[in-house]
């Protein structure tokens, strides 16, 4: 499942380094046209995925998660195969749109594993699985660039589609879905309105989803500007490669720390680890605005990757511990929607901020988001803790 999540996540971002060049192979277009449609084609996948992820989660809760995994896995592979044969900009746009529709694989896989994992070990297990998802998204541009340089655009899509097909086939024969029963009062099916009411009533859960959104906004806000930012420190000819390394090394940091944060969350509470990770993320993101060499930037990006490595798995583990199994898939879908929304908003917000105030200002703004989220989570946890203590006091007095 880890391998499948890695390549599914990577498939969504791998076109980033060569998307504009691939569009140029369709005809003679102006630079403005190519830049505009590169943004549309890249962003449409995440925008559509933002809208449909909760639906896939709901379908998985109702009809079985393995069925949804197979449908979406082969659907993504099919879209990748067709991308290798597309000959028009509009055709590529609609294939990326279709890919967004079937990108329900990741939240469904999280729901499947979460449902079969004990609450006590949720952080460790889901942290390991989440490493594949986060690392795939971050390593995707690097893998896409290497494949495109080595075998060309067409074979890049064919190879990726083949790997995802193999991963889906491994799910077909290697994953067994075990139906876990819980208390009948919790196991009943709920309407979408009831699920949204449940989410709205849990302020910590809402904050957990906002944290997922902020991580993606911060991480992707600098991505389109990274090559220009790296160019300020070096005159090397391989600036694109160095920029890709600076972006993808965050995924390496994720790989080294995600499981550790998950284990600590199981031990002392995922809300507390989430708060710590938000603070540390802001601390390591801020100095990236002040670096004077590419290696300083890469080092800080690695440490930043270690810090954010605990945010997503702890968010997922918190959902596993607090949400009834009968609606976990849908709630995880909402959490994934917030992440997809961050993928869309990040580059847009980063571009606007950089255009008005300079590239360094992107780091300052994103750092403020991390600290603001940490402050909000702190006060919510403090408030919830006070309510819990009052309830215990009333029980003792009663």
Automatic annotation (TrEMBL):
Keyword Manganese listed: no
Domain Major facilitator superfamily (MFS) profile: 1-385
InterPro entries according to UniProt: MFS, MFS_dom, MFS_trans_sf
Membrane topology category: Multi-pass membrane protein
Entry superkingdom: Bacteria
Keyword Transmembrane helix: yes
Subcellular location: Cell membrane
Keywords linked to the UniProt accession: Cell membrane, Membrane, Transmembrane, Transmembrane helix, Transport
Pfam families listed in its UniProt record: MFS_1 (PF07690)
A single GO cellular-component term on record: plasma membrane
Transmembrane segments annotated in the record for this chain: 37-56, 68-86, 92-113, 125-147, 153-175, 195-219, 239-261, 273-291, 297-319, 340-357, 363-381
Any one GO molecular function term: transmembrane transporter activity
Stored PANTHER family: LMO2377 PROTEIN, MULTIDRUG RESISTANCE PROTEIN MDTG
Protein name per Swiss-Prot or TrEMBL: MFS transporter
Organismal lineage: Bacteria, Bacillati, Bacillota, Bacilli, Bacillales
């Amino acid at each position: 499942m880890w391998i499948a999540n890695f390549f599914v996540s990577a498939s969504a971002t791998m076109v980033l380094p060569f998307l504009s060049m691939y569009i140029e192979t369709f005809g003679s277009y102006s630079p403005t046209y190519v830049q505009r449609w590169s943004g549309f084609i890249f962003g449409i996948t995440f925008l559509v995925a933002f809208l449909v992820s909760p639906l896939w989660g709901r379908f998985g809760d109702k009809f079985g998660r393995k069925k949804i995994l197979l449908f979406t896995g082969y659907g993504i592979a099919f879209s990748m195969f067709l991308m290798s044969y597309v000959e028009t900009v509009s055709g590529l746009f609609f294939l990326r749109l279709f890919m967004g529709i079937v990108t329900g694989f990741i939240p469904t896989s999280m729901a499947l594993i979460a449902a079969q994992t004990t609450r006590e070990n949720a952080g460790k297990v889901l942290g390991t699985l989440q490493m594949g998802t986060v690392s795939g998204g971050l390593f995707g541009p690097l893998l896409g660039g290497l494949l495109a340089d080595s075998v060309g655009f067409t074979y890049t899509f064919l190879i990726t589609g083949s790997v995802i097909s193999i991963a889906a086939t491994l799910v077909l024969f290697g994953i067994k879905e075990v139906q876990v029963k819980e208390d009948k009062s919790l196991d009943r099916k709920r309407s979408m309105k009831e699920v949204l009411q449940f989410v709205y009533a849990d302020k910590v859960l809402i904050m957990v989803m906002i944290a997922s959104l902020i991580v993606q906004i911060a991480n992707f806000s600098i991505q389109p500007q990274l090559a220009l930012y790296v160019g300020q420190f070096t005159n090397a000819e391989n600036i694109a490669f160095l920029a890709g390394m600076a972006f993808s090394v965050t995924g390496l940091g994720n790989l080294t720390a995600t499981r550790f944060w998950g284990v600590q969350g199981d031990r002392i509470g995922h809300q507390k680890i989430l708060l710590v990770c938000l603070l540390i993320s802001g601390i390591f993101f801020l100095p990236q605005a002040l670096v004077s060499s590419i290696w300083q930037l890469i080092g800080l990006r690695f440490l930043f990757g270690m810090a954010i490595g605990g945010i997503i798995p702890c968010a997922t583990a918190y959902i596993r511990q607090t949400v009834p199994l009968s609606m976990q898939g849908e709630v995880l879908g909402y959490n994934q929607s917030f992440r997809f929304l961050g993928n869309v908003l990040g580059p847009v917000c980063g571009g606007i901020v950089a255009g008005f105030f300079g590239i360094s200002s992107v780091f300052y703004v994103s750092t403020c988001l991390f600290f603001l989220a940490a402050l909000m989570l702190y006060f919510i946890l403090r408030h919830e803790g006070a309510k819990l203590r009052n309830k215990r006091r009333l029980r003792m007095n009663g």
